[in-house]
């Protein structure tokens, strides 16, 4: 028999399990959302947004990804604030790592051929800037 720990008086729901991380997984108490967003910005966002300013089709793709991030948060009743954005970005990075994806150096990337992960992380940064969290 397996005993599952309780959290806030409830056991985790495991009737249906997937390999997907929730888009708004809670950050650990030790993780400051601003630091997480800054790390994502340094690793991907700054170069992606600079490239998007030069490549209109890339800007359109980043805008579409930003809309998808907003929609994902809204579908869970979450506002576009620092904690949900940082959690979302962390979940994207964790999913990418689980799939074996290693981000190439963003400065060396051909942004006209950016991956889904690059676009989604750049969109998280664009939203963080738009809402004054970066």
Helix content: 55-70%
Tell how many strands the DSSP assignment holds.
0
Structural class: mainly alpha
**What coarse outline follows from CA principal-axis ratios?**
globular
Gyration radius from CA atoms, angstroms: 16 Å
Strand-residue proportion: under 5%
Structure description:
With 134 residues, the protein is mainly alpha-helical. It has one domain (33-130). It contains 4 helices and no strands. The protein has helices at 33-54, 56-75, 82-98, 116-130. Helix 1 packs antiparallel against helix 2, helix 1 crosses helix 3 (82-98) and helix 1 (33-54) crosses helix 4. The protein starts with 32 loop residues before the first helix and ends with a helix.
Summed up:
The chain is built from four helices and no strands. By secondary structure, the chain is mainly α.
Lay out the secondary structure.
Elements: H1 33-54, H2 56-75, H3 82-98, H4 116-130
Pfam families: DUF6401
InterPro entries: DUF6401
Structural key phrases:
DUF6401; single chain; 134 residues; 0% strand; mainly alpha; disordered N terminus
